[in-house]
Amino acid sequence: MSAIILWVTKASKSQQHILRTLQSATEMVVYVCNNEQQAIQIAENIKPSVILQSMQGTHSLDLLRTYRAHTLLAHIPVIMLGLHAPKPIRDYAFFRGCSDYIETTTNKQELLTRIRLQSTAYLQRLQFIDAKNSFETTTAKLEACQKTLKNVSSLDALTGIANRQTFSQHYEREWSRALRETEPLSVLIANIDHFKAYNDHYGYKQGDACLKHIAQVIQKVLQRPTDFCARYCGEEFIILLPATTAKGGMYIAEKLRKAVMDLNIPHQHSETQPCLTLSLGLSTTSPMLKHKSRDLIRAADHARFEAKRQGRNRLICKGI
Fold first, then answer.
1. pTM, whole model, 2 decimals?
2. What is the structure's pLDDT at 143?
3. What's the domain range around 228?
4. Domain check: are 112 and 212 in the same one?
5. What angle do CA 136, 139, 145 make, to 5 degrees?
6. Does the pLDDT at position 28 exceed 70?
7. Which of the chain's ends, N or C, has fewer CB atoms near its CB within 10 Å?
8. Residue 148 within any structural domain of the chain
9. Cβ within 8 Å of residue 268, ≥6 positions away
10. CATH number at residue 90
11. Are residues 72 and 24 in the same domain?
12. CA-to-CA dists, residue 75 to 59, 114, 241, 281, angstroms
């Protein structure tokens, strides 16, 4: 790795041989700044890996403080050059952030070695920061992709609400919670009446639009954040109502049935109404150890089947 050196001093006779040594080193690029007032601006432009400057006068220490307070230059190693500088001054320079102190009488090999060490350590630090930032960016993108993938895999592609698998996972958690807290739990299954006839007459594109409308209506009817709906299969939707009694479930079911009728979606081949309707089955229980979680869903499905058998566009309730 090449060392980019900013020489910030008007070289004295004792320092000129150091400057010539650096300029003759093939792996070092040296920029000379004779005006210390321009040092910050030049350092910002060239981004050196080492700054070399004389330890003469308080202005050199003031400039050192300026480097360390500068966002872009704070970590660039600064090597101070001097000739028998008093120890208190050297100690103060190190306290202010000086990285190394080199006597102008130091031999060529030691001089180059110490500068290379400071430059290499700084460049490696930059590489580490770049790698760390790249890793964090890649990790963030991967996490975002995983989150998106998880969301996509948990949703029904057509309606945008939860799919059956997601519902099953959520249902098992709610069943366990209701069992633990001895709370009522209701399941509502809604089936679109004569949907095959609707698809046959209006086409599958219109049928898909119909399913989306129903999903949107369900989401509007459900007010509580704990209520959960999913597309169960085909033209069936399932709704989980935690901490909900049969009376509360019936209220939601009737509200949903009327909301779908209010859409007034034409259905010329329906044997029930000239518009789209729902048949709904509701089941409610307070889970006990003797119950199995699937029993509640089966009861709601049997109620839904009974609603269809009795003429559709209605709600039937059944217990476990």
1. 0.58
2. 79
3. 164-318
4. no
5. 145
6. yes
7. N
8. no
9. 201, 274
10. 3.40.50.2300
11. yes
12. 20, 17, 59, 70
> What does the angle CA 215 – CA 218 – CA 219 come to, to the nearest 5 degrees?
90
The confidence score (pLDDT) of residue 145 equals: 76
- Domain co-membership, 55 together with 201: no
pLDDT of residue 150: 65
| pLDDT tens, position by position, 247-300 | 999 999 999 999 999 999 999 989 999 999 999 999 999 998 888 999 999 999
**36-95 per-position pLDDT tens digit:** 778 899 999 999 999 998 887 677 888 888 999 998 999 999 999 988 888 988 998 999
CA torsion 255-188-173-298 (nearest 10°) is 170
Taking each helix axis as running N to C, give the angle between helix 58-69 and helix 39-46, from 0 to 180 degrees, rounded to the nearest 10. 40
In this structure, the answer to whether residues 241 and 185 fall within a common structural domain is: yes
Q: Are strands 185-192 and 78-82 parallel, antiparallel or unpaired?
A: unpaired
What's the CA gap between 111 and 3, in Å, rounded?
Answer: 13
155: helix, coil or strand?
A: strand
Please report whether residue 170 resides in a domain.
yes
Cα atoms in the Cβ-side hemisphere of radius 13 Å centred on 150: 6
- Same domain, yes or no, for 11 and 86? yes
Q: Does residue 44 fall inside a structural domain?
A: yes
